[in-house]
């Protein structure tokens, strides 16, 4: 679809020179254009600039385009959510209540709850049912401004069920307008009926070759953490994934200083995610890498863990990406606006830093920095228009408030304007 958005109060995250990511002090710089226009043609960003520049254009080229007026509103590139687990069955609010009463996430997992609880439910659920519930979650997050995402397997834990999850992800990819990357997370937990050795052999010898044979995944993951997979086990799994064309993208250092960051970097992971436990050695390893440190403050918030040392990382010169970690156990929300608020409030990141972390840097974390994550000519026309708000810092400031008015995917309106509650009176 062809669309012109005019009179934009501020067009956020504009880009004229391609960037892979932004790091260190540059994270606090956010390019924007005030009083702007944006043109989307055949689903791609065709042009943008000031309204003055717009008036100088020859409008014969834009005959027949739909028009929108964004007076008082900001336009952002859609968020890229680079870490989710939205294919799952059932929910885990009983564990939520158990944690309120004092149990820890690790205690619940060790007693057969947690990931194993979700795996049991997923094994008992058909592919069709899984698809329907994941599709609902996908629509939910698009309405909150997400325009590209990564989805993991990891609640199957058998060859049959891991493939079932990945086929659901493929179907989501095929049937939706947003770009989706699939991550094979067989190494999420050890199932009860297998020893560690048996299960890791299964991942390496059967699951990875089968996933690759059907072309079902872009990435290979491992939950490299205390009580889950060791760096040595992770290294074996990642190397086998690489052999089968899957780039590593892993869970690391959520529960302890696990060695996950180093094993990820050593295997050229595209990102290492969570990072509650990060010290000098991890920062040093990341500084000399092409690996995007990805923070998931929603999981730290929900589990009551201490927050990631974002300031220390940025001051050391690192880039940071942020993602929702939408999953039933540690982050049952896929809201990128709330992720931004948490990162500002708890990680002490600036609004400019969180916007960079949720757009261009998270696009890099799923290999989409050339097509998503900024307003640049030729990139995919996935944008959202805000309600009338004072400026971009209002979004993370007004936590929990729905500040989005419309979501546009490839130039098509996905979410129509919804009045704010105030407008109803
Ligand atoms: N940390 C590992 N995996 C998920 C949680 C999975 C679960 O508890 O179901 C996460 O990213 O937080
Ligand atoms: Zn995760």
TrEMBL record:
Q: Does the keyword Hydrolase apply?
A: yes
Domain (Amidohydrolase-related) spans 75-413
- Identify which cofactors the protein needs according to its UniProt entry: Zn(2+); Fe(3+)
Give the pathway listed in the UniProt entry for this protein.
Amino-acid degradation; L-histidine degradation into L-glutamate; N-formimidoyl-L-glutamate from L-histidine: step 3/3
Record-listed 4-imidazolone-5-propanoate binding positions:
92, 155, 188, 254, 330
Keyword Transferase in the entry? The reply is no
UniProt binding sites for Zn(2+): 83, 85, 251, 325
**Cofactor stoichiometry and binding remark:** Binds 1 zinc or iron ion per subunit.
Q: What EC number(s) would the UniProt record show?
A: 3.5.2.7
The protein's annotated catalytic reaction(s) are: 4-imidazolone-5-propanoate + H2O = N-formimidoyl-L-glutamate
Which parts of the sequence bind N-formimidoyl-L-glutamate? 155, 327, 329
Described purpose of this protein according to its UniProt entry: Catalyzes the hydrolytic cleavage of the carbon-nitrogen bond in imidazolone-5-propanoate to yield N-formimidoyl-L-glutamate. It is the third step in the universal histidine degradation pathway.
PANTHER family this protein is in? IMIDAZOLONEPROPIONASE (PTHR42752), IMIDAZOLONEPROPIONASE-RELATED (PTHR42752:SF1)
Family the UniProt entry places it in: Belongs to the metallo-dependent hydrolases superfamily. HutI family.
Q: What is this protein called?
A: Imidazolonepropionase
